């Protein structure tokens, strides 16, 4: 893995690495439903199986989907803390597996660290002091490894 100085920082949806944001405008189909962004899918899974999940899916923007998903008055599923990383990984993998152009951008980052430059979020992002958990960045690196393995195994099959 590269040094932090060489790391790729992303946050806003504009620019080359904007597609790393869950707010980027790339729809996915998961659980037999169409989701406008991975942010819609992720936030809705907090209330899976309830009408709130559908309300979030239909939210006009990822910002509004996230606002609803973070509403402390809504009944968050009990196991959310245990499953939230898996939900995020599943959504991010699905997005990059769906869009070949995005997969190419991610694979082209090689061995570089990927950091969500979100100063407000010490869990998914780098947090206020830059030492946050950066879970979204780590999940992008995990997805990059999975996609690379898939590309390698498809090349092996093609050689046969
Ligand atoms: N790109 C972007 N813009 C914002 O304004 C954001 N708040 C975020 N945050 C993303 O929200 C997800 C986490 O939601 P919870 O805090 O667990 O409700 C995660 O994808 C963050 O990266 N992103």
From TrEMBL:
Pfam families: NADAR
Ranges of residues in domain NADAR: 9-148
Coiled coil: none
Reactions catalysed according to its record: 2,5-diamino-6-hydroxy-4-(5-phosphoribosylamino)-pyrimidine + H2O = 2,5,6-triamino-4-hydroxypyrimidine + D-ribose 5-phosphate; 5-amino-6-(5-phospho-D-ribosylamino)uracil + H2O = 5,6-diaminouracil + D-ribose 5-phosphate
Entries under NCBIfam families matching the protein: ribofla_fusion
Record's protein name: NADAR domain-containing protein
Organism: Reticulibacter mediterranei
């Amino acid at each position: 893995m590269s040094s932090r100085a060489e790391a790729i920082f992303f946050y806003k949806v504009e620019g080359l690495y904007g597609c790393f944001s869950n707010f980027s405008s790339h729809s996915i189909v998961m659980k037999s439903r169409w989701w406008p962004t991975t942010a819609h899918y992720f936030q809705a899974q907090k209330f899976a199986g309830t009408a709130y999940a559908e309300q979030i899916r239909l939210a006009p923007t990822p910002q509004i989907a996230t606002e609803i998903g973070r509403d402390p008055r809504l009944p968050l599923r009990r196991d959310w803390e245990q499953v939230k990383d898996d939900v995020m990984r599943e959504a991010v993998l699905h997005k990059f597996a769906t869009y070949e152009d995005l997969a190419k951008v991610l694979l082209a980052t090689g061995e570089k660290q990927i950091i969500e430059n979100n100063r407000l979020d010490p869990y998914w992002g780098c947090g206020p002091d830059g030492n946050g958990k950066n879970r979204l960045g780590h999940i992008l690196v995990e997805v990059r490894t999975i996609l690379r393995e898939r590309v390698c195994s498809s090349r092996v099959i093609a050689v046969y």
